[in-house]
Amino acid sequence: MHSNNRFLVLGAGGLLGKTVVEALLANKAEVIATDINTDTLLAHFGLDNDQLSIEHLDVNNEVEVVSFFQNLEPIDGVVNCSYPRNKDYGKKLFDVSLASFNDNISLHLGAAFLIMQQSAALFLRQNAPLSIVNVSSIYGVVAPKFEIYDDTNMTMPVEYAAIKSAIVHLNKYFASYIHDSRFRVNSISPGGLFDAQPDAFLDKYKQLTMGAGMLNATDMTGSILFLLSEQSKYITGQNLIIDDGFSL
Question: Cross-referenced Pfam families, in alphabetical order (predicted)?
């Protein structure tokens, strides 16, 4: 599907990011994989793949991001899997300070804005089709189902809901502002991704799906590849929910 295409994947060292890179490489694409921790990427992918370039990028460093995009050769798409957050991220509602809330909004949503802004500027310079795929969440679309967190130390962070819902709307903002069919901004909204969560949580989550329960990162890649491809060339400003019915 993506032979002779060139894509940028940000946050490529994470659970979803590595899987997206693997899927693009398997589809014969050239990939620029960036992360703040390149050691993780080098350990996973090595240095022997001619299709893959690994580069350091701190998505919260405006100077670094702007310089990176200004020096980027033409690409066909951007997948933002980055997930910056501070050490207090994930506390329960009444334990979240205003300073921590604001910091996490700035880190995650601010980085998403910066990446979309610089991707839009790149599109205008290269004057060629560009598809951006962001990662939102079912909890950017529906209210949390807090009962599934009973009997665990987990919660659904309030910062996460605010950030992921805002990303859905930023898709529309940027698509509308640039106003060009060749420039597309969409997102996927995964349901829960399996990452060794407690059994009590996994069992309750599964009961609210059509039977699959928590999904794997590989379950997301088909939709991402589709949104990056010419097969979706008139889909823009949209959010694709992939959750086996959890949000119904």
Answer: adh_short_C2 (PF13561)
3-state secondary structure of 218: helix
Q: Is 234 a catalytic residue?
A: no
Coil vs helix vs strand at 58: coil
Rg of the chain taking only CA atoms, in angstroms:
18
**Rounded Cα distance, 138 and 123, in Å:** 29
Inter-axis angle of helices 38-45 and 15-26, nearest 10:
40
Distance set, CA 161 to CA 19, 35, 144 (Å): 24, 24, 8
Asked if 88 contacts 100 with a C-beta cutoff of 8 angstroms, the reply is: yes
DSSP helix/strand/coil, 47: coil
**Annotated active-site residue in 160, 173, 177, 205:** 160
Please return the burial class of 131, using the count of CB atoms within 10 Å of its CB with bins 0-12, 13-18 and 19+: buried
DSSP codes of every residue in 30-41: EEEEEES-HHHH
Q: For residue range 200-246, what is the model confidence (pLDDT) as tens digits?
A: 999 999 999 999 999 999 999 999 999 999 999 999 999 999 999 99
pLDDT value at position 212?
Answer: 96
| 3-state SS class at 185 | strand
Which residues does 189 contact at the CB level (< 8 Å), separation at least 6? 136, 137, 138, 140, 141, 164, 168, 239, 240, 241, 242, 243
